[in-house]
Amino acid sequence: MPGDSSRPIRTATGADFAETRRAIVAKSEDTWIVLGAGSILQQPGHGCAGYALQEGEGGDLTLFDCGPGTLRSLVNSGLQLEQVKRVVITHFHLDHVLDLFALAYARRNPGFVARDLDLVGPSGLQSFVERAGKALGGVERGFNGVRYLEVDPGERIASKSLPEYRLSTVDTHHSKISLAWRVDLPSGGSVCYSGDSGEERGVAELAKGVGIFCCECSFPEEVAQPNHLSPAGAGRMATHAGCDLLLLTHFYPSMDPQRAGREAAEHFDGRIELARDGSRHLFPVQEPAEGLTN
Question: What sign results for the dihedral spanned by CA atoms 237, 198, 11, 208?
């Protein structure tokens, strides 16, 4: 029940977490992996924003945001750069994009066999990458030949069917242009990543009926910021969305994750988990979305 502070809030870590999830949800081979669950003011276990969607056991990776430390966390999570086939960016603040240029630099290394790569993000992504890359010594050349997909959804949800899944987005109004993203997989699994957002109805609508709502929870209520979420705001958004799992993330040092979970539970009576660097989350499997089949 909402407000039941005795309901356990899980911190998602390691084998214990994986074992528990297998007992709760239908088995899915697709996985949402947290590479950075914190903010620019990093803490142990909570680095800058970065997430990976892995398609099947040992499969390809789509990165969602690429903040400082994402590539190191990726390798520490047992993943490889060679598995990355797409990077999806929410907005251009450094705590969400800086390792994008580390990835470009890695792709220029003669010891790295660069594969085809898609870069997806807000309008202006290619210009941003090229201008910033030049300032960093020409690292943007590591992205020569990549495919750019730029999106400006305005006030409406925009969707595009890609070969592997359907990708949908809406503006969060966090910055000049900043996006939340949703993925609907052929298996029936789905995830919505809020990026940085205030309590935006459009983001909650994007997350309607989603399996995993990976939602930022930056600050406690007493120091809440209009373009970020508090636990109460995240809980209300999850209730509106009707998601299966609320995964709280993007904690600043002032936001104790355990407190965040307890306070979010006062506004959302579904399952709540707390992201931590390296945590893995299996998708609750639902009926595949129309038009999405293997």
Answer: positive
For residue 126, with 0-12 CB atoms within 10 Å meaning exposed, 13-18 middle and 19 or more buried, which class applies?
middle
Tell me the backbone φ, ψ of residue 283, rounded to 5 degrees.
-85, 130
pLDDT at 237 over 50: yes
* Backbone φ, ψ for residue 89 (5° rounding): -110, 140
Gap between the Cα atoms of 105 and 101, Å rounded: 6
Whether this prediction's pTM lies above 0.70 is answered by yes
Give the count of alpha carbons within 13 A of 223, CB side only.
Answer: 9
Which residues does 133 contact at the CB level (< 8 Å), separation at least 6?
101, 104, 139, 140, 141, 142, 143
Could you tell me the domains of the chain?
A: 10-282 (3.60.15.10)
pLDDT > 60? residue 8: no
Model confidence pLDDT, tens digit, residues 62-92? 999 999 999 999 999 999 999 999 999 999 9
| Each residue's pLDDT tens digit, 107-154 | 999 888 888 999 999 999 999 999 999 999 999 899 988 999 999 887
Condensed to tens digits (0 to 9), the pLDDT of residues 208-224 reads 999 999 999 999 999 98
